[in-house]
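User: Round two. Same drill as before: sequence, then structure, for each protein.

Assistant: Same drill it is. First protein:
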Amino acid sequence: MQQIIECVPNFSEGKNSEIIKQITQTIEQSGGVQLLDVDMGYTTHRTVVTFVGTPEAVIEAAFRGIQKAKELIDMRLHHGEHPRFGATDVCPLIPVSNISMEETAQYARKLAERVGAELGIPVYCYENAAFEDKRRNLANCRAGEYEGLKEKMSHADWAPDFGPAVFDEHVSRSGASAIGARDFLIAVNYNLNTTSVRRANAIAFDVREKGRPKREGNSVVGKIVKDERGETIYIPGTLKCTKAIGWYIEEYGIAQVSMNITNTRETPLHVAFEEVTAKAAARGIRVTGTEIVGLIPKNTLIAAADYYLSKQKRSRGVCEAEKIKIAVKSMGLDDLKPFVPEEKVIEYMIEKSAASRKLVDMSCAAFAHETASESPAPGGGSIAAYTGALAAALGTMVANLSAHKPGWDNQWEFFSRWAEKGQKLKDELLQLVDEDTKAFNKIMDAFGLPKGNENEKMERSRAIQEATRYATEVPFRTLQRVFEVFEICEAMIKKGNPNSVTDAGTGAACARAAATGAFLNVKINASSLKDKDFAEQIVAEAQSLTRKAMQWEQRLIKKVERVIDQA
């Protein structure tokens, strides 16, 4: 599945829109990223830019944006309310989907090293990309700001991680940058059936990590208790990694608890929603819904849906669209205005902007018509993947029907696990439908390369072999995924709803057909490879899996027939 990260560079310019326009255009023109937001602040003299994409595309766009900012922003002339020490003051990378924080931190360090080496900008790595604990905190890295940078860099323990360690005339113009990796921040407001800001604040203090000031006698009006240094002592709230406050929104005529969740692994959105709801109820107040400010990662909503489905003892193996709907309704995300996933979920925003048309987005009839046309793609590889996806879908359907069968409530979790596995396999196989056609197109592109001189011939030959190997590996991945579908079909034939046993049997038959089709594509593509050792090995493995698939199908069909005969 595609890895996606978000980048939120903060540029030290908030008054000249033309400068920011040049920077954002440079970011967009790098390709492969989607610009989501540009927030200019006049008083802070700072602009926050948000864009997303695949890791390599994001760090390339970030590098170009930092390069352009160095050209256009002179820190010697900069004054603003917000702390800063460079033209590109901070540049955090945030994991969004299918990528770990550790991987994201490595990309941040890769970007930091390139910025230091190629642009001559001193770079401090912070948060999860930091090389030592004291540099994890951005405030420490930026202490002294631009005006104190020369003094800071003169101390060995505060030499930059990358780039020049001497404050010269080049550094004096662009300053330094902090590049790091941090968690996604979710900005969320909880709608209350009250207009009281005082009560909304009380709920916010109940839950936010910082909590509320401790007072003498533990009363709400007692004198605030301070420590020996004269600093206020706080009673911590119940939710870690959250900041919250109560306010009144005139537009809606209600009070809200406004919250930032800075670490969704520590405090998932649905956990925060449940806790705010509980604390509000304890004060006689009801949470009527939730408002997401900005964008939200898809996995946050999927996790919420899984939580609420489990509470209802319903199968978690339902499709993604259904899960998004359940999350929206469970937390009232559409309370104040419609929640449109295509406009609020980061991954959907990226998909919507993609120019390429996907086969899997076609109707069944359109896909069949496209296959039947005179074009060689989609061909057998894509059809094999699609047939495998249908096989997984059938097994998943039986699992979900079984989870909801009256009298089988105590088995819902068993069937839910099978349904979840089936949904995952179905989605992977659907992705391979387009991947197989993409592989074919790579071969065609390689054959279209020039072959005039010797170097061009060598490059063309290399590209053809590389594309052919990829075109061999894609149907092999299809075969591997399809082979796993048999496990689901067998479990459903044995223990699933007897009324749907033929659906599971049909799934097994489709899986065998998909396996055979995938094998044939592996074999034909491998025959053109010059790396004969690899070709022989992958064909042998594919043939072994296909033979086992045929045996598995025959065995499962016989079981289905026995169930039918006994009915």
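Second protein:
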Amino acid sequence: MADYKAPLRDIDFVMNKLLGFPAHYAALPGNEELSQEVVSAVLEESAKFSENVLAPMYRVGDIEGCQWDDGNVSTPTGFKEAYQQYVKAGWPSMTHSSEFGGQDLPNSLGIVTCELIGTGNFAWGAYPVLSTGAMNTIKAHGTDEQKSAFLPNLVSGNWTGTMCLTEPHCGTDLGLLRTKAAPNSDGSYSVSGTKIFITGGDHDMADNIVHIVLARIEGAPAGTKGISLFVVPKFNVDAEGNIIDRNAVNCGSIEHKMGIHGSSTCVMNFDSAKGFLIGQENKGLSAMFTFMNEARIVTASQGYCHAELGFQKSLEYTRERLQMRSLSGPKNPTGPADPIIVHPDVRRMLMSQKVFSEGGRMLVYYCAQLVDLTLAAATEEERKNADNLLTFLTPIAKAFITETGFESANMAIQCFGGHGFISEWGVEQNLRDCRISTLYEGTTGIQALDLLGRKVLGSGGKMLQSFTKIIHSYCLEHQDNVAMQEFIKPLVDLNKEWGEITMSVGAKAMENPDEVGGSSVDYLMYSGYVTYAYFWARAAETALKILDTDSADEDFCKSKVAAARFYFQRILPRTRTHVVTMQSGVESLMALNADQFAF
């Protein structure tokens, strides 16, 4: 069974036919000359690296895991060599500024290559992904001296970066953090504290590791208003970025995890380590969101990466596995049994995996275009509109795609039956590796509160309307398209209902604020299903257009329309359960006091 095959055909469909990436790049200042041929070449080379280098190490990383020895972490066999190959080929510098040695390619292209890397070997891919966030944070908020000292080596990939937020006593509630920063006479700070769950906190793949750390300066206000942001390297460097000596940063241990064993998850101890303030005092949390928003989009991609990998393995297995006869008559009359792909319930699982993986790809690539526009659109109005839309869609993408990605990975095991429960096929590892995706960068519950509480109700519904207006305009455009009515009519109804449900929940929340928490996850999942419906309608429309003009992609386009029809008929009705649940109110959730839960 093949380890992984990059779905370049579907990537081409989404980028070039559905979302119009060539026109997007042509209108993006600084990328007007970026040709489709160059983009295709980048993706083909990334696919080769993922298929031939990363995917074969997938099981190795799981079996060996990372090893900790007296504060030093070593990665599984082949990881370091693969990273050296990755750096030599120039992949880390692709989307970064040429001022610091980058190639000035759009961020969206980097997000697409993240999919290829993540599906091939997500544990390995976690190391370079976090470096991107560190670079973006320093570039956006750092001083010229900090940029000169850290960015060239981060951009080249010689160094990697991390995000250090969580502490043993606090996770999402960062206002509780205790890590301290005391000013030094030379303008630096002594940073002291313990951070946990730090991905890539220590490893043997790069010469230095640059930690982006949240800490509280002595005398700062309590809560989130007193948090500052620091850059704290593993090895101290001079103004030109040359390594001087070891900083007081130490990996105390690595976590023993359910999955992604090849990715080091570290407890990091800062013992009066030398750090440098990024941005303004007590404004660290807002600066850190430069890091977190992009990280959430990449984490969203993890969901459909695992859906894609499980789907590929399921499809190959169900085509070959012989068991029972089709209820409608033998499909393999010369064999002892039919391949299980003929059975309707197996088809249900395969189609579900297909629509979730391909739906995730459409949403993430759309968000990737918005990332480009927030950074480089020609006008301030365009940048602001893109940022508002991206801000609204990010929690949906992060939570919905990872939840349905985990569901897909679980269905892959079911397709294999008992063989899925043993390790040799790789689908049980895929499920274990996928589980963290719903927790990274804020759990589904946190994303749901962010969506409903802050983004939707907090904006008086304006952020929701920024997207529902797009859906409304699309439906108006195709209201007379006979071939599209099976998609347009339900989408019109759901888009209208989305606003009505929001108003209903908001009215209840004015009387009881707990209604927001009681409805938020159902609201997010409902929002995700409607969002996918919009993209699947567009996919069907695009495929139908191609079928009218070009027979070369006939089978592919017919399969795309069939997948859209399956989504609308078999997946989208899940919205009804979420509506009933939201309408039921919060009373049944809050009926018991804490003691009454005892048994």
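Residues 449-586 form one domain.

User: Perfect.
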